[in-house]
Write a structure and sequence with these properties.
This protein is 5% helix and 41% strand. It has helices at 13-17, 159-163; strands spanning 47-51, 58-64, 75-76, 80-82, 85-92, 103-110, 117-127, 136-144, 150-158, 175-189. The longest helix has 5 residues, at 13-17. The model has no long low-confidence stretch (mean pLDDT 88).
Length: 190
């Protein structure tokens, strides 16, 4: 349970000190609070929401060697931590869904074990340009609510662009993928 709640910037100091505003009279102000208590009618249905005010972006880079020899439907990066949550990058070398056969598909995957945890995250997935730094990037925000849930793009980069030597995405049969994840909120069931 949250034991305290409030605002870190309730009223501008300039407004508070302005005598015309009526908040400060004879160097005195009156503060108050109104508390309402409601009782839950069904037990076990509560959630605890934690919003992260100054969320920090964290990056994970995955170097994929011998791309031409990849023969599985998809590959996952090792698990990495961003915003105290577990994530993976998922790569479909020959595409998935609407991208099957002509695109590289790229997704961010929740790797959290607790099915009661929901995570609101902003993320960017990138195929890095290893020559000029002109990365192919996709950005999104999403509520991840189960382990293994993936969000991203079935048509991230076309095979033609991906294999074009001037684009720099595939150099010496190696590509570099990056996920940048910012966790903005976490919900846990009570």
């Amino acid at each position: 349970m949250k034991l305290e709640c409030g605002f870190d910037q309730f009223i501008p100091l300039k407004t508070l000190n302005d005598a015309r505003s009526g908040y400060l009279v004879d160097d005195t102000c009156v503060l108050g609070v109104e508390v309402s208590i409601t009782w839950e009618t069904s037990t076990g249905q509560g959630e605890n929401l934690l919003m992260i005010k100054d969320a920090i972006s964290q990056k994970h880079v995955w170097k994929v060697d011998n791309f031409s020899k990849l023969d599985k439907e998809f590959y996952d990066s090792k698990v990495f931590i961003a915003g105290n949550q577990k994530w993976k990058i998922r790569l479909y070398p020959d595409g998935w869904g609407s991208g099957l056969g002509s695109f590289v598909s790229l997704f961010l995957v929740s790797a959290n074990e607790d099915p009661r945890t929901k995570v609101f995250a902003g993320y960017a997935l990138r195929v890095k340009d290893q020559l000029q730094g002109n990365n192919d990037v996709g950005n999104a925000k999403y509520w991840f609510n189960t382990s293994g849930q993936e969000r991203g793009w079935a048509r991230f980069t076309s095979h033609a662009d991906f294999r074009n030597p001037n684009k720099g995405y595939l150099v010496k049969d190696t590509c570099v993928l990056e996920a940048e994840v910012t966790v903005h909120g976490v919900v846990n069931d009570l």
